[in-house]
Recover the amino acids of this structure.
């Protein structure tokens, strides 16, 4: 087992990794920007190293500075968390070259799954159902037109290096297609320095269902059930839950089997998530694979009584999976609400100092956060400030428990998205499980 791990991240996920390391008896090193000197992950780590000014490009994305901090503090491994460098194959390669273990899959797998067009081809070859679409990148307007007419409108133009909804456009006809094609390419070039796009069939009212997987270095792989992630705004998730109200036992078995077989085919090791679109007729299609821990991993931990971050560390240290698929338990229902420092009406960021704070507690309530009373939420990073997770025996009870938790949560000095979460929880369609990725389109009108 590792003796010391550097955490190449910040905020709640950095704290989450520290807690896992504490239980495993591993020392931790926090890296931080100048803006995060007073952050909780800096306070609770055994050591801390400042790696640069507030902008991410000069700190949390600065590979040279992070590696220097790792070498100075003599760590065995680096955990990248999510975001930042977590799916950067080059960073994983640099770690290997410096004899530092990267807590995640191999650089080759990260690169393969990071290119969405290549990932789709790989998964199709592995027998995973994929959305009808182009076999590769679309290089010109003429090809875009012919592919769209073959697939049939509406179609979705997607950046091959995309994420978070950037470089993604819907087209219902030829005129919209030409505009969407150029817009998606331009946006992808700005956001990812890669203008490559591909086309796939646009499914009108799908659910966003993802399967959590774990694979070790010895060919073993398991799935830990699904997460329902359909409640999202502009492709950014707001609420996640497990299990999905739309997934039967039989469908869970089938989706899980497909995900596990795909992991074994590509030699996947560590934690990962395979994301699917679930059509209204029960068909499911591969969307992408995230080669890291997910923001919403706590709901899976709650219903499977597991520690996914500890599992990541054990796998990276060379240990085999310590339980089989048949030994895995699924208990009750869990829901997570992402609390952002944003205006609940306009969704504009709301940085500033937290003047008063009360975090929810009580039976079945978990809060993953790095904020505290007097903390200044900086304007430089993602606006996520806390994740409230609840667990109960049924979905109905979990919804009631989440409502109780959010009603007792006080965050003063800044605006948060708590009010919009409470509105969603009270919505009859949400309560009945009648949701899709279009849910918030109707809800916010």
């Amino acid at each position: 087992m590792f003796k010391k791990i550097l955490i190449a991240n910040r905020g709640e996920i950095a704290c989450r990794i520290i807690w896992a390391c504490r239980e495993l008896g591993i020392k931790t090193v926090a890296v931080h920007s100048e803006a995060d000197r007073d952050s909780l992950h800096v306070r609770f780590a055994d050591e801390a190293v400042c790696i640069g000014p507030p902008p991410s490009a000069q700190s949390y994305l600065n590979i040279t500075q992070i590696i220097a901090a790792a070498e100075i503090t003599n760590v065995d491994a680096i955990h990248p968390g999510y975001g930042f460098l977590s799916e950067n194959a080059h960073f994983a390669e640099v770690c290997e070259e410096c004899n530092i273990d990267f807590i995640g899959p191999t650089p080759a797998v990260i690169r393969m799954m990071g290119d969405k067009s290549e990932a789709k081809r790989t998964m199709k070859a592995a027998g995973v159902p994929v959305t009808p679409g182009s076999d590769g990148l679309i290089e010109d307007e003429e090809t875009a037109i012919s592919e769209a007419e073959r697939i049939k409108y509406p179609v979705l133009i997607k950046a091959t290096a995309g994420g978070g909804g950037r470089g993604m456009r819907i087209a219902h006809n030829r005129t919209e297609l030409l505009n969407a094609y150029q817009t998606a390419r331009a946006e992808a070039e700005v956001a990812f320095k890669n203008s490559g796009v591909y086309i796939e069939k646009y499914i009108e009212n799908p659910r966003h269902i993802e399967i959590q997987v774990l694979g070790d270095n010895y060919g073993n792989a398991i799935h830990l059930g699904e997460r329902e992630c359909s409640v999202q705004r502009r492709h950014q998730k707001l609420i996640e839950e497990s299990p999905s109200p739309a997934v039967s036992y039989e469908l869970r078995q089938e989706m899980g089997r497909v995900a596990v077989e795909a992991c074994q085919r590509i030699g996947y090791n560590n934690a990962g998530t395979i994301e699917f679109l679930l059509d209204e007729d029960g068909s499911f299609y591969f969307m992408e694979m995230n080669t890291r821990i997910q923001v919403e991993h706590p709901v899976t931990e709650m219903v499977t009584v597991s520690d996914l971050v500890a599992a990541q560390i054990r796998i990276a240290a060379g240990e085999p999976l310590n339980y089989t698929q048949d030994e895995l338990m699924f208990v009750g229902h869990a829901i997570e609400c992402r609390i952002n420092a944003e205006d609940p009406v306009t969704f504009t960021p709301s940085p500033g100092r937290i003047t008063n704070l009360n975090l929810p507690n009580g039976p079945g309530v978990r809060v993953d956060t790095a904020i505290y009373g007097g903390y200044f939420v900086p304007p430089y990073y993602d606006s996520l400030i806390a994740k409230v997770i609840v667990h109960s025996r049924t979905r109905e009870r979990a919804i009631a428990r989440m409502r109780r938790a959010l009603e007792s949560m006080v965050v003063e000095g800044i605006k948060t998205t708590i009010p919009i979460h409470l509105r969603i929880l009270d919505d009859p369609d949400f309560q009945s499980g009648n949701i899709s990725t279009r849910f918030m389109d109707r809800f916010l009108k």
Summary: The chain has a mean pLDDT of 95.
